[in-house]
């Protein structure tokens, strides 16, 4: 396989896909590429040889993707390609998350001035990067570990690396079940006040910037739930915004939006129980069967359909939209119509009844993220502003200290949208009695591609 070199930092990558990921997620720096050429890795499915384990992962995900487990859901368009579901996305997300953290793992811990959770999360990521592909495949291709078991596994890895003392290990181990079962999301994962900081960034060549309501928090994965809970984290981001809206706060939190004494967000464990409650009430029965009627204390992935079912149970209306890559349009601008759709959504603010615009849940075939706004340049080009649960609390804190220099972690341009299908989940108000019954069957709508 022919390698490619980054023209900025001269790192060597196994193919253009890795180079593209490098440009999207990493800041170029001087690194040595020799280590990636020292070992060969064989594909366990076709025996093809690779010298970079990340290239091997991409090869398996792309060339052997027919082995994925596909989950079907009723959609407005009935073809299988119209459905994106969390269970078939598991292996691909691993690859991007590992690659995104690759540069982080190269930094010595002595140089990091950050909290214990962020440091442990980095330690775990470094450990996972060093695992063989066989272990990788066993853990993430069909892992049956419970939430508690996975958290204990994480803790053991941290201890074996001697990153924590025996006393700390015993302390965490003794209270691990309590930490997993806690109903409220830990403050260690949450970052408030990011939206106002984004709104105050210098405009430069940007002529228009629109953002969701300022109360939306960023929620990062921590060592307790790292590697499998992105759907839950994005759900938490959406809930952090909805809690400020009087139209939804009483339904979700049992208090008025003006009551700021309760800023709690449900934990991952609590959200699992809420989804199961929605299933029991008849929402998304097909999805319930796909999960074998069980979600609590599991590491099963959720996607937009589970969030739709949960919100519908609380009488909140949502819509799910599918955006497909146009085959007749150049790949670099294929999703311009998605960016335009997002722009129109955030421009509705003056017409919104409560003058509140909530973020958008974004699902694609290797990850889920949260769209919190957009920026439009004077030449008409648009870039999206996105909260990614893979962004560590440490990186968010760096942004808070230097907003202009670190804002790139939230910005995504059109070129970075390269997947065949994207889905966007939108909150649309409250359900009428008739709509509530119809909402028990989850559907999505394919957004038509504008004629050129």
TrEMBL record:
PROSITE patterns per record: WW_DOMAIN_2 (PS50020), ZINC_FINGER_C2H2_1 (PS00028)
Domain (WW): residue spans on this chain: 273-306
Gene3D superfamilies in UniProt: 3.90.70.130
Keyword list, A-Z: Hydrolase
Keyword ATP-binding: no
Molecular function GO terms recorded: deUFMylase activity
InterPro entries reported for this sequence: UFSP1/2_DUB_cat, WW_dom, Znf_C2H2_type
Keyword Coiled coil tagged: no
Similarity section: Belongs to the peptidase C78 family.
Protein name: WW domain-containing protein
Organism: Rotaria sordida
